[in-house]
UniProtKB/TrEMBL annotation, chains A, B:
Keywords: NADP, Oxidoreductase. Residues 11-158 form the L-erythro-3,5-diaminohexanoate dehydrogenase N-terminal domain. Pfam families: ADH_zinc_N (PF00107), KDD_N (PF26370). It comes from the Bacteria. Residues 206-293 form the Alcohol dehydrogenase-like C-terminal domain. One of its GO terms (molecular function) is NADPH binding. This is Alcohol dehydrogenase zinc-binding domain protein. InterPro entries: ADH-like_C, KDD_N, NAD(P)-bd_dom_sf.
Length: 346, 346
């Protein structure tokens, strides 16, 4: 093959024409690469939680039925893009071929073990065989091939941790890297959902940036996640409050900041209706970073307007330059984060 | 009355308890003010377009039926919060009483003609009589009373323009004020939907900030809106492209910027599925400001990640300090904007 495709993969869109591979219904999963593509021998699919749950439920936990459903999705769409939930997941595998015109963002060589950081919902995939479905880990062992476009991102899997630990960290890699950009020395910072996967990484990074003159506050709704934050030791204050109750959150944050509120709020929850708590805990002219995918755009925009609050609100871009390196290093830097992440995700 | 309520109006929430007035199903519209509230003699309701259209359709254009539906909403909920569309609108009226503990953001006196800049979906309202429904303007002349909480925002109506022109400008007041914050001299700026109401204000403000060394590009899908941009004269380039086609937009913007792309994109469209065009037209490390309420949070977040694009994406907060003054002044400053706005909205 000597064909060079579009860096965004539009050359593989079958229907409807004119859209990008992600919104496309069906893409071409012929496993002959274009000159600017990368071929991956896939061994593991890490199915998105929403998608996996839907398939499991529909199959009534029958592994054989789940297998058929997954093969069927890829057969019909050329990618593991669940038509019900709209979501994908990630994959792990080994680079087996690199097109001569490949211009990806980082160096890679044949034989590297990588994880793709773009969604399965846009990745051409051909499954030869499903070897095993791991219900607990929401992972599937496969014998498959996949293609990465040159606009796609991936990370070389580190050798000092298990693949499932690395995947867990890479899944939320954007959060600590963005925290590093946003937080400055001496600031008050609030991490809502600070005891979760992305939240813990943000807590660490926020304290590192805000420093001894800054104040980092973590919020969780359960005793469990609050205890975890206390155990980590990076939060100056841990508050057990329900983030769907904006007035309670505002009151609690006001108390521990002497009414000053916070300069930066980072929202890392996994549930809806926490926009107002994030906005109200933040100072006028402060910043709210919505990493949570359960954020409602209109909820945030009209909510801030409704109370005349001049805050800068950021959409949590899953990608930022070097985010994978930053996230993996964060866990390596802190022995206690390393220990907690090992216990929870290895 | 000597009671001081919550600045956010939670003291008026009837059901469900514990939420803010906007998400509440029913609020207390007793027209005796708390000490930190403002009482307004309302003469005009400016019903949100989505809400007005729904009511009109449901009533099969029968004015008497529309009237009954509107009274019914306020009767049931204590506010003009359309249960089908979830939206509200704005109101115009005269300040008739100011609570002794009122601490609003700007000075106001009894007798001032004001427009509220918070949604009707959170404003306690009591309609005594509907005088006239203006189908074309989506406005309703009423004899009514309303209450503004001290966290609520409003603008004193200017004397040099008609109320309907002022309302049109105030409706999108956040856009030019944010543009002023975002754009710096010498930058390339893209306004998607630059021929619309908010878009025209942003075009003017962007050119003013980017200056002679900057480059302002306007995009519209119809010849009409593109001609309007050319007539205004503030765009260095006007491109007629469909913003739902990201590759076409990217190509067109690349051509007029010699492949540099833009530092700041401001999205002012009124239709969905334009996130990718906004992201792909912007330089790496550039900024996208989504003023459009049709923006999908996940569309933006996963879209940027899917192509590994490190852009800062901002949620269009409808409020920013002094936004009403900035927006009204924008139109006064430019004779040609003044003329076009007069023709379209006066
Ligand atoms: N932007 C992106 O690219 C991207 C990428 C990956 C993930 N995400 C999103 O990031 C979010 C977090 O992911 P994650 O993996 O870090 O989730 P996670 O590990 O499940 O953590 C969620 C945290 O939220 C807390 N929480 C839940 N309900 C709460 C409430 N009512 N009040 C206060 N805290 C509450 C939980 O603590 P308690 O149990 O104590 O309440 C938990 O610590 C998700 O919404 C996910 O979709 C975004
Ligand atoms: N954040 C806030 O607080 C706030 C407040 C008010 C309004 N808004 C939102 O702001 C947006 C704009 O409001 P507006 O009053 O300025 O709207 P508008 O006057 O109707 O203008 C919309 C513009 O979008 C253009 N457009 C539509 N489809 C397009 C396409 N496919 N490609 C390129 N351009 C396209 C239109 O031009 P053509 O007809 O030529 O396509 C038009 O010029 C709305 O989504 C509204 O919800 C937000």
């Amino acid at each position: 093959m000597t064909k060079i495709g579009c860096p965004y993969g539009t050359h593989r869109v079958i229907e409807p024409q004119g859209v990008l591979p992600q919104p496309a219904w069906k893409i071409d999963n012929t496993m002959e690469i274009y000159d600017n593509e990368l071929l991956i021998e896939v061994d593991t699919l890490n199915i998105d939680a929403a998608s996996f749950t839907q398939i499991k439920k529909d199959a009534q936990n029958d592994i054989a039925v789940m297998e058929r459903m997954m093969l069927d999705i890829v057969e019909k769409r050329g990618k593991h893009h669940n038509p019900i939930t709209g979501s994908g997941g990630m994959l792990m595998g080994t680079v087996s071929k690199i097109g001569s015109a490949w211009t990806g963002k980082t160096p890679v060589k044949v034989g590297d073990r990588i994880a793709t950081l773009v969604s399965l919902s846009l990745t051409p995939l051909k499954i030869r065989k499903i070897r095993k479905i791991y219900i607990e880990k929401e992972q599937v062992e496969v014998d498959a091939l996949a293609i990465l476009f040159s606009s796609g991102i991936y990370a070389v899997l580190p050798s000092d941790m298990s693949p499932s630990l690395a995947l867990a960290i890479l899944d939320v890699a954007g959060a600590p890297a963005q925290t590093a950009h946003l937080v400055r020395p001496g600031q008050n910072v609030l991490i809502i959902g600070g005891g979760g996967k992305s939240g813990m990484l943000c807590l660490y990074e926020a304290k590192k940036r805000a420093g001894v003159t800054g104040r980092v506050i973590g919020i969780g709704s359960s005793k469990g996640s609050c205890d975890r934050m206390r155990h980590l030791g990076y939060a100056d204050e841990v508050l057990q409050v329900d983030a769907t109750d904006p007035l309670q959150v505002m009151k609690a944050v006001s108390e521990v900041t002497n009414g000053q509120m916070v300069d930066v709020t980072i929202n890392c929850v996994n549930i809806p209706n926490t926009e107002m708590a994030s906005i109200m805990a933040t100072k006028d002219r402060g910043t709210v970073y919505f990493f949570s995918m359960a954020t409602s755009f209109t909820g945030a925009a009209l909510g801030a307007e409704g109370i005349g609050k001049d805050v800068t609100m950021l959409v949590g871009n899953g990608y930022c330059r070097n985010h994978a390196i930053v996230a993996l290093e964060t866990v390596r830097e802190s022995p206690i984060l390393w220990q907690v992440f090992h216990e929870l995700y290895a």
